[in-house]
């Protein structure tokens, strides 16, 4: 048996990534990062800052660099621990980009251009529909397949990209012989899609320009409670999950995920109470969960040396694992090596 972030052959492999833009939101936390934290000790865990993915949108370089470092500190603050997981910056492990190229040559333009996120992002950044935007899911497939991942804990918005990853793995295996493990998604029952506090029909997004629409894991208590007080709700007064009540349903989802209660339990708890009281209760529960994270974040972000050490160590370990797969792939496709 091994301990720490060395790989244990008896454990399954989980891998996931997050793009460094803005700060980690409540949506990212409940859809993904909370599960990473809960699962990390039971798996061989690999988590990375998807900085290459984030380049698909124009960034101001100095700000982007700082945001990536902040994200690393935020993951540590959420309890993602180098004792349990390999944690690194995607751009530090060149094998990601190298495998993406080989997978590109096995991906059809038609299937890449059908991806919903590509279509959405192309519409949103119409002045910068670059090759990377379309290639984004192929890089994501490379991330996952490099490490023989068994499970990929993500929110529901990544499901289509996971399906493409599976298709590419199966296609490659059929064409060149058994090479990649075909991964499964791990999508939480509660929290897979947290919606905007201002438009509960849309997903909560890091890049939403409306500050009131999101909550960050490092926001202070007053800010969090204020955002929930301002959350858009629906007509009527009943606190229950219903299709015609997207605002209240979203708040119930958030409260259930934070308090680890079923929606029915939450409905019972707030029976007869008004929207105002409920919004404050949700805000306070979220603020209580994030308080220690905010405090830990302040500690980690002031220790750049520690971050650098963990990131370097993580990248070295990831590169060794990734190189094993890449070498095999290069051989299979017929690239020379001496
Ligand atoms: P990203 O950075 O957009 O989001 C990080 C994780 O948070 C989840 N998520 C949400 N979950 C619930 N409700 C929401 N409103 C919400 N918004 C985001 C996402 O599903 C994701 O799990 N392409 C990925 C990053 C990535 C990746 C990978 C993930 C790159 N390579 C390989 C897994 C495996 C992304 O943009 O996530």
Quick summary of this structure?
By secondary structure, the protein is mainly alpha-helical.
Secondary structure topology:
Elements (H helix, E strand, L loop, with lengths): L12 E6 L7 H14 L4 E6 L1 H4 L6 H17 L7 E5 L5 H10 L4 H5 L2 H9 L6 H16 L4 E3 L5 H18 L7 E3 L34 H9 L16 H14 L3 H7 L5 H27 L2 H30 L5
Parallel strand pairs: 1-2, 2-3, 4-5
Helix pairs in contact: 3-12, 4-7, 4-13, 7-8, 9-12, 10-11, 10-12
Tryptophanyl-5'AMP (TYM) binds next to strand 1, helix 1 and helix 7.
Helical run tally: 13
- C-alpha Rg, in Å? 21 Å
Low-confidence stretches: none
Helix-strand pattern: EHEHHEHHHHEHEHHHHH
Bound molecules: tryptophanyl-5'AMP
Strand order of the largest sheet: 1-2-3
Beta-strand percent range: 5-15%
Total beta strand runs: 5
The average pLDDT score comes to 96
Q: Biggest β-sheet: count, sense, barrel? A: 3 strands, parallel
Gap from first CA to last CA: 35 Å
Helix content: 40-55%
Q: How would you describe the shape?
A: globular
Find the structural class using helix and strand composition: mainly alpha
Primary descriptors:
338 residues; mainly alpha; three-stranded parallel beta sheet; two-stranded parallel sheet; 13 helices
Description of the structure:
α3 crosses α12. The radius of gyration is 21 Å and the shape is globular. By secondary structure, the chain is mostly helical. The relative contact order is 0.15. Helices cover 53% and strands 7% of the residues. The two termini are 35 Å apart. The structure holds tryptophanyl-5'AMP. Tryptophanyl-5'AMP binds next to β1, α1 and α7.
């Amino acid at each position: 048996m091994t301990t720490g972030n060395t790989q244990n052959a008896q454990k399954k492999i989980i891998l996931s990534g997050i793009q460094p833009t803005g700060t980690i939101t409540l949506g990212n936390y409940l859809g993904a990062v909370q599960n990473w934290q809960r699962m990390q000790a039971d798996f061989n865990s690999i988590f990375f800052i998807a900085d290459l993915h984030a380049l698909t949108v124009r960034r101001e370089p100095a700000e982007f660099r700082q945001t990536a470092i902040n994200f690393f500190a935020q993951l540590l603050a959420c309890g993602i621990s180098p004792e349990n997981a390999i944690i690194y910056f995607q751009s530090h492990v060149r094998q990601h980009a190298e495998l993406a190229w080989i997978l590109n040559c096995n991906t059809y333009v038609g299937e890449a251009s059908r991806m919903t996120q590509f279509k959405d992002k192309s519409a949103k950044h119409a002045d910068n529909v670059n090759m990377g935007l379309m290639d984004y899911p192929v890089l994501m497939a490379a991330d996952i397949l490099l490490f023989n991942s068994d499970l990929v804990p993500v929110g529901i918005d990544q499901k289509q990209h996971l399906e493409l990853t599976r298709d590419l793995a199966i296609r490659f295996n059929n064409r060149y012989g058994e090479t990649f493990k075909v991964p499964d998604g791990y999508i939480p029952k509660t929290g897979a899609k947290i919606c905007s506090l201002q438009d509960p029909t849309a997903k909560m997004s890091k890049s939403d320009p409306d500050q009131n629409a999101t909550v960050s894991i490092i926001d202070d208590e007053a800010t969090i409670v204020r955002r929930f007080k301002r959350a858009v709700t629906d007509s009527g007064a009943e606190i229950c999950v219903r299709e015609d009540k997207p605002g209240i349903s979203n708040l119930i989802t958030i409260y259930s995920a934070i308090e680890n209660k079923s929606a029915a339990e939450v409905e019972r708890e707030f029976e007869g109470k008004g929207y105002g009281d409920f919004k404050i209760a949700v805000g306070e529960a979220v603020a209580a969960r994030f308080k220690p994270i905010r405090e830990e974040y302040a500690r980690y972000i002031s220790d750049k040396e520690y971050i650098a050490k963990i990131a370097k160590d993580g990248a070295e370990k990831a590169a060794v694992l990734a190189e094993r797969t890449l070498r095999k792939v290069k051989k299979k496709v017929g690239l020379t090596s001496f």
